[in-house]
Design a protein that fits this description.
about 100 residues
């Protein structure tokens, strides 16, 4: 839960400084929901989330550094595609809004 909160705090700060594109939907105060539900799963269980699922990915063992790269729109992020979104997928985690935005 601490890792989730620290990640969210970093994102909130970066967003307030205009360093990340788009908008952020933070889930501060909801860390226990993600931590508790992920603790009940096996390591090979699949999960899906449609909104504010980054806390779930962290609770399931996702790496915050890769998630931050994703948020900054870098190809070194979780999905290896410059989406600059929260739509992350990793192994057994699939977020419902993880669709490439396409070339503009």
């Amino acid at each position: 839960m601490v890792r989730q909160r620290e990640f969210e705090d970093r994102v909130a700060k970066a967003f307030s400084e205009g360093k990340v594109p788009g908008f952020v939907h933070l889930s501060q105060g909801q860390e226990a929901t993600a931590a508790g539900s992920m603790a009940a799963l096996r390591s090979d269980d699949y999960i899906t989330s449609f909104h504010r699922g980054h806390g779930h990915l962290i609770a399931k063992g996702g790496h915050p550094k890769l998630m931050m790269a994703e948020r900054y729109g870098k190809v070194t992020g979780v999905v290896k595609y410059p989406t600059a979104s929260w739509g992350v997928s990793s192994g057994a985690f699939y977020e419902g809004d993880n669709l490439p935005e396409g070339d503009k």
